[in-house]
Amino acid sequence: MGSLRKDSINRKVANAIVNLAPESLSFRFVEVGSLPFYNPDLDGENAPEEWKSFRASLAPADGVLFVTPEYNRSVPAALKNALDVGSRPAGESSWSGKPAGIVSGSLGGIGGFGANHHLRQSLTFLDMPAMQQPEAYIGAFGGLFDDKDQMTNDGTRDFLKQFAAAFADWVKLHAK
Hints:
The chain is mainly α. The chain is built from five helices and three strands. The radius of gyration is 16 Å and the shape is globular. The mean pLDDT is 93.
């Protein structure tokens, strides 16, 4: 999750994907908001416990689905920090080889295109094969959910169901 907001629309989208995904996928949310900023001076045996726990939580994952808003045409700082924390110490990346999917969104019409593509650049370096199709840019987030956090847009629901099925196939094809 890229968003830290209590009432995050991205979290609602992520929950919708969990509910729409095929049974072959199981999900576990890994929180990034409490991770101290990455600083190489703190790494090694005396690394913060939050870093150690975060890295350990990534180890059993067969794949990673990122759901993120766009901040200033990029990913939020908390998500970028999580990428950095998980990629260290050098040579011990928790991300390496894990297939990835990306869903980005925004209140505007371009659906987080900038965040999606900035994240793809990082995933390339992290050796995470990112699913190419279908691409998931979801615009006009504001009207997707009712007051009970139920998705109200059938077209978006159908698309996310197709996306989740494609992601399941992607993970199966690329998981180590």
